[in-house]
Specification:
Strand content: 15-25%
Largest sheet: 6 strands, parallel
Number of helices: 14
Structural class: alpha/beta
CATH topology of the largest domain: Rossmann fold
Number of domains: 2
Strand order of the largest sheet: 5-6-4-1-7-8
């Protein structure tokens, strides 16, 4: 396991601390619609403020591509954070510059301010050394608590660490510890569940799980590409034509693997994807013309749930159907309830499946919910994440 220095290991009183957080939250009519990510950062923020740090918060929001976009300003985030902390967090209208430097100089011990959306700066995603240096000049210490962006080598996640000491936040430590646990010493059987639309997004993690897991359950739109690779009738179902050969190669690799790869045996299909649309259940390998697969069927859901019930560890990324459109949430919900009732150590990662689990009211029954999507997958793949690699070892 990667053992990193954390905020708990260093003295912060009176120090200017640049804290990279992940406040990439949904906004609606000028308000924060879901504050889950803000709440996830509170332990680190509170820890630093209570110990007298002078806190400079930095985050991205959306994909403004280096341009200041009014709808992606962080004012609603600062307002919600102030409410959650019970103290004022001043929001600045820039990321760097004289006004920012002045505001930082005026910070007292135990006070916090929030910089503007760091992706308004063209140098952020390019990891521009000059921009990273300007950001680092604001602080004495860098703390990365934004696991969700740790797979990006950006100025605010990696570049600043070339200029000032860098340690992990409390959330980052939790992510590293929990994700490492399931890779290094998993309780077996280890059951991995992969859903979502595209095989192309998850080629590496599929191959990794064929080595690591005892059972790999695949559902969602990505399963369709595997059926296409088996020359099954697909009707009007979505699948990735360009990934059929890759899917065929994975099926062949699974034959040689000790991991059991399980595809759906039945599917819910509909002619039109809309709420409460008529649907029927058909064998997975025989989708009628004019119909499209939108969920795993009840037999598959029961099969997957049975596998989960016997698991020692469950890792899950991606929903198993179009859960946002009832009744095509049923497959995902059935399996989610099985995970919640299981005695397995369970980790769920990726925005869509986390949203589904929270919608089903099951979040508190999951052992650990990762704040990463791509970062979680890349960690499971065994890749070195730039935002973690730059942090000081313990």
């Amino acid at each position: 396991m990667q053992v990193k220095l954390s905020v708990a290991d260093v003295e912060v009183k009176g120090k200017r601390v640049l804290l990279r957080v992940d406040f990439n939250v949904p906004l609606e009519e000028g308000r924060v619609k879901d504050d889950t990510r803000i709440r996830a950062a509170l332990p680190t923020i509170t820890h630093l403020l209570q110990r007298g740090a002078r806190l400079i918060l930095v985050s991205h929001l959306g994909r403004p591509k280096g341009e200041a976009r009014p709808e992606l300003r962080l004012d609603p985030v600062a307002k919600r954070l102030s409410e959650l902390l019970g103290q004022k967090v001043r929001k600045l209208d820039e990321v760097v510059g004289p006004e920012v430097e002045k505001a930082v100089q005026e910070l007292a011990d135990g006070e916090a301010l929030l910089l503007e959306n760091v992706r308004f700066e063209k140098g952020e995603e390019k990891n521009d050394p000059a921009f990273a240096a300007r950001l680092a000049q604001l602080a004495d210490l860098f703390v990365n608590d934004a696991f969700g962006t740790a797979h990006r080598a950006h100025a605010s996640t990696a570049g600043v660490a070339a200029h000032i000491p860098a340690v992990a936040g409390l959330l980052m430590i939790k992510e590293i510890e929990n994700l490492s646990r399931c890779l290094e010493q998993p309780a077996r059987p280890l059951v991995a569940i992969l859903g979502g639309a595209k095989v192309s997004d998850k080629l590496n993690i599929i191959r990794r799980f064929l080595e690591l897991a005892d059972m790999l359950l695949i559902g969602g739109g990505m399963a369709n590409t595997f059926f296409a690779a088996m020359d099954c009738p697909m009707g009007d179902s979505f699948f990735e034509e360009g990934m059929v050969e890759q899917a065929r190669a994975i099926l062949e690799a699974a034959e040689e693997s000790s991991c059991c790869l399980q595809l759906p045996v039945d599917l819910a299909v509909t002619r039109e994807l809309k709420p409460e649309a008529p649907f029927k259940v058909v064998p997975a390998a025989d989708i009628p013309e004019g119909w499209k697969a939108v969920d795993i069927g009840p037999e598959t859901a029961a099969l997957f749930a049975e596998s989960v019930a016997d698991a020692g560890t469950v890792l899950w990324n991606g929903p198993l159907g179009v859960f946002e459109t009832p009744p095509f949430h049923r497959g995902t919900e059935t399996v989610a309830r099985a995970v919640a009732q299981s005695k397995a150590f369970s980790i769920i990662g990726g925005g869509d499946i986390v949203a589904a689990i929270e919608g089903f009211g099951l979040a508190d029954k999951i052992s650990f919910i990762s704040t990463g999507g791509g970062a979680t997958l890349e960690f499971w793949e065994g890749k070195e994440l730039p935002g973690i690699a730059v942090l000081q070892d313990k």
